[in-house]
Design brief:
The structure is a single chain. The chain is mainly alpha-helical. Helices cover 59% and strands 3% of the residues. The protein has helices at residues 3-11, 19-23, 32-44, 48-59, 73-81, 89-101, 108-120, 143-147, 149-153, 169-182, 189-201, 205-217, 224-236, 240-252, 259-271, 275-287, 294-306, 310-322, 329-341, 345-357, 364-376, 380-392, 399-410, 415-430, 465-484, 489-493, 516-528; strands at 437-440, 455-460, 499-504, 544-545. A 4-stranded mixed beta sheet has the order 1-2-3-4. The longest helix is centred in the last third of the chain and has 20 residues, at 465-484. The N and C termini lie far apart (85 Å).
């Protein structure tokens, strides 16, 4: 039987039937390369589980079985590559360990496949207890060792409760590439394409671009895909101008852009604020008959969003649907944000309802844009409704969402709305969205240490007037509780202090200081209370009050 016939046979099997029993007799007519092709075709026809069922059975056969030889570097490498789409990195690593246990050497395709699996795994890998590192590629690995090889390989990637060290799958991909060099195996174009992708995902855009020169030093010419991946890497790292330079290198190399190239170019122009260039590139795509994917339209709509062209964004959205291109969450998010920035809350709501109607699940970015649209339009009831709908769909709000809803409710002046704002602030604080930081603020103290400082600074993360007022209230309640406490906290915190400082904004949990509007609001409240706090320069953090 041919590979095609074997695939059809497996496709015709009932769900619970054994693929091994059906195809085992015919496998005697295949060599390892044909077996690898059979596994790939099964995966292409959505039968990955059957491919692995057959391969696992072959691995279990004794060494003297006539089919034992089918498990060689070709089939093992294919099995490893098939772990990428299903994001089974640990299984891929186990297969490498089994290869070593059988005495099979990894080749360039094995390394490339393993790197590719690594970058398709989005989550960070868990850790194990500390031990001496041992490479999965260690030639001394035995069958017994293979059972524990994942622990050996990831010994450097453990999560230590003391240091909170964590290794990402992309870091492991770089380790695999390094091991490849140590084993003196020459990378091919596929390997370098994957390496560029890894650098992009780890924020190392300069390294990604440098790979193009490294390839030439190895007498390898970058292909269109290599340049495309480098352009995308620059875009991911917020370097659109560098992405445009890579595109120029592609043209200088005499290569013709393809659909992926144009899409990445549109994204670069959009990030650079050059909407006209993005539209011009889109027109070129259409003239040359290049396929426009959902990624293409999403990039172009995002460019319109950044340029404040919400009407054009809606026109492109209609065009993509006429062409039979289904929008995804990224598309809808860009469109809702465009409507929000254009002061069109009703349009944003229409797009949101259409998104749900087409079965596209909203995420935190979706709700943040919708909530902000209602907030900017002064529609605080709808702002709160959108927030409650967000919670009902188990979508976790971030600090931006909380502060938008809280500020919207607080600005109403309505008692129950402000009470709800206080309730939400408490929830956000319990979820570590708004965390107070206490630190010694007198940098000139010679005594050193927290207790030796003469000043005590409270850093309150608050970036909007509503959140600032509620943060002040929470802080004052905590100060009163500490001063009224008999546990000794009063003497520990306040005794011997020259000043108590209150600062808005930046802490190790916040990237930017509080806004000037929030600071002015806070000052007005403190002045109204006849508080002894006054604006001062003594605070370490900008926006401080002494």
């Amino acid at each position: 039987m041919s590979v095609e016939e074997l695939v059809k046979l497996c496709s015709s099997l009932p769900g619970g039937a054994s693929a091994v029993a059906a195809v085992a007799p015919a496998l005697t007519y295949l060599d390892s390369r044909a077996m690898a092709a059979f596994m790939k075709e099964l995966a292409k026809t959505q039968q990955l589980s059957r491919a692995m069922e057959i391969f696992d059975w072959l691995k279990s056969l004794p060494a003297d079985h006539e089919l034992y030889s089918l498990c060689d570097v070709y089939t093992f490498t294919t099995a490893i590559s098939l772990m990428g789409p299903s994001q089974q990195l640990r299984r891929a690593l186990e297969l490498v360990g089994e290869m070593r246990a059988r005495g099979l050497s990894c080749n360039v395709h094995t390394y490339s496949a393993l790197m590719n699996v690594c970058i398709k795994v989005r989550c960070s890998m868990g850790g194990v207890a500390q031990m001496q590192p041992q490479s999965v590629f260690d030639h001394s690995c035995t069958t017994t060792d293979a059972r524990h090889f994942v622990t050996c390989l990831l010994a450097h990637a453990f999560v230590d409760p003391g240091s909170v060290l964590q290794c990402d799958a992309c870091d492991l991909a770089l380790d695999v590439f390094k091991q490849m060099h140590e084993d003196r195996i020459r990378p091919n174009v596929v390997t370098y394409n994957t390496l560029v992708d890894v650098y992009g995902k780890t924020g190392q855009w300069e390294q990604a671009v440098r790979v193009l020169d490294d390839m030439r030093e190895e007498d390898l010419e970058p292909e269109v895909r290599t340049y495309n991946t480098a352009i995308i890497a620059c875009n991911m790292c917020g370097q659109p101008q560098e992405a445009l330079k890579v595109h120029q290198k592609l043209l200088e190399a005499g290569l013709q852009p393809i659909s992926t190239t144009y899409t990445a170019l549109i994204s670069a122009y959009g990030k650079a604020g050059q909407l006209d260039k993005a539209l011009e590139t889109f027109q070129t795509m259409m003239q040359r008959g290049c396929e426009r994917s959902v990624i293409t339209y999403s990039a172009l709509i995002s460019a319109c969003e950044k340029a404040g062209r919400w009407e054009l964004a809606l026109q492109l959205f209609d065009q993509m649907q006429r062409e039979g291109c289904a929008p995804n969450t990224v598309t809808y998010n860009s469109l809702i944000t465009a409507c929000q920035q254009g002061g069109q809350p009703e349009k944003a709501c229409e797009v949101f309802e259409q998104m749900k109607h087409h079965g596209c699940r909203p995420d935190v970015v979706t709700f943040a844009a919708l909530i902000n649209a209602y907030h900017r339009a002064g529609q605080w009831h709808k702002c709160l409704q959108a927030f409650e709908q967000m919670q009902q769909q188990n979508c976790k709000p971030d600090s931006f969402v909380y502060q938008t809803v809280i500020d919207s409710l607080w600005q109403t002046g309505v008692a129950w709305a402000q009470a709800r704002a206080w309730q939400l602030y408490g929830t956000a604080a319990r979820n570590w969205q708004y965390r107070f930081t206490v630190q010694a603020a007198n940098s000139g103290s010679s005594g050193g240490g927290f207790g030796a400082s003469r000043d005590l600074e409270y850093i309150v993360p608050a970036f909007t007037p509503g959140v600032a007022v509620l943060a002040l209230r929470k802080w004052l309640l905590e100060v009163v509780a500490q001063l009224s406490s008999d546990s000794g906290s009063r003497s520990l915190l306040f005794m011997g202090r020259d000043r108590i400082l209150l600062s808005l904004g930046r802490s190790r949990h916040a990237k930017e200081p509080g806004s000037s509007t929030a600071c002015q609001t806070l000052l007005s409240v403190l002045t109204g209370f006849r508080s002894p706090f006054r604006p001062g320069s003594g605070a370490v953090t900008p926006g401080g009050y002494v």
